[in-house]
Amino acid sequence: MNTLFDKIWDAHIVQKVDDGPTQLYIDRLYCHEVTSPQAFDELRNRGIGCMRPEKIFCMPDHNIPTRNQDKPIEEPVSRHQVETLVKNAEDFNLSLFGMNHPKNGIIHVVGPELGLTLPGMTIVCGDSHTSTHGAMGAVAFGIGTSEVGMVMASQCILQQKPKNMRISINGTLGKGVTAKDVALYIMSRMTTGGATGYFVEYAGSAVRSMSMESRLTLCNLSIEMGARGGMVAPDEITFEYIKGREYAPKGEAWEKAVTYWRTLHSGDDAIFDKEYSFDAADIEPRITYGTNPGMGIGISEAVPTMESVDEAGRTSFKKSLEYMGFKAGEKLLGHPIEYVFLGSCTNGRIEDFRAFAQIVKGRHKADGVTAIIVPGSWSVLRQIEAEGIDKILEEAGFDLRQPGCSACLAMNEDKVPTGKYCVSTSNRNFEGRQGPGARTILASPFVAAAAAVTGRLTDPRDFL
Hints:
Low-confidence stretches: none
CATH superfamily of the largest domain: Aconitase, domain 3
Shape: globular
Strand order of the largest sheet: 5-4-3-6-7
Number of domains: 2
Largest sheet: 5 strands, parallel
Structural class: alpha/beta
Strand content: 15-25%
Number of helices: 16
CATH class of the largest domain: Alpha Beta
Mean pLDDT: 97
CATH architecture of the largest domain: 2-Layer Sandwich
């Protein structure tokens, strides 16, 4: 019996090249402003159009400001990239959800919430966190700009088939433990290269009980341990999430689709190239201490000692601690922070804002903390307002911004200053990721909220 990944991959094979790559049909291409311009230029140079324009959806997200989106973008490079995407979408007759469009947002948030991302699909985008969409039971992965052009021109891509890995999380997650903590825990055990060359299927009772938003967070971070992508088999939670969404099948087509989607799971006798299993009870709220997402600890734990680090990794470990201003063996609970970022394609969904609001309700933002609070889409923002979360945030001293990638990668004005500590719900803590010299501590919305109201790293379980 094939794995879930094999089933979807095999159903999309156009042809195989002996001792070479597979030509794979692609159901959906997502385009944003950063990685698509050269691909469009290539089509122009070759005098061709997009083979199946109805399969391609464009939206700016990386460079857009999170304030005053109704005004022209001030930063010239960002403005040029966004304007170029608008022109390219018009020239090639592609669907565009531009700035201020009610369907705009971070592309990896918008795809699932519109029902553009569906089980059984192959999905690509010129962005590594395309792995997010695998949570819907799709094969989704990031591609390079030349490959974006290849998909535009042919609706196919040449790919070497990855190996299969299954990671099971069994048991029940504890109080204050989220999918973000699960992902950070897995990365700390697997390292940032532990899944290189693999497509990961997440399984086990803890994963099956996760909401759709939580699964999206989990799959989003697959890339951070080197995986080509991550996925969860679709089930009733998936179907309930998709039903009624704008681009989801309707009527008879819905019944037919669900019948097919129910076949999308790994068989009991499916063989994986590697399997790992973890116990949900071992996971507590987590934070990172270093400069890659795998350098993480439980909130109550200490930074590893130099002796506990593999000899080959000690130089980079020491360099990371120097950059972060931390010491080997020290506990970080209580460490002062200056910035908090809630948002990104990792944690910019309504569930993340509900979690953040749960802790800040009735409290107030700590003096000296700058909070950058950014929904993942206009749809999420409308839901925040409908549920009164905006009022909770306002009363607690927080300023809600407009949707975009924002401080996740600091390609707009939302930057963390040199040397400042930011508890961030985003996906990467690389040197300079949130601004030159910025110090990023990755965490869940619960941990971010606790830090925001105390001004220091705090165990969110104290507030729940």
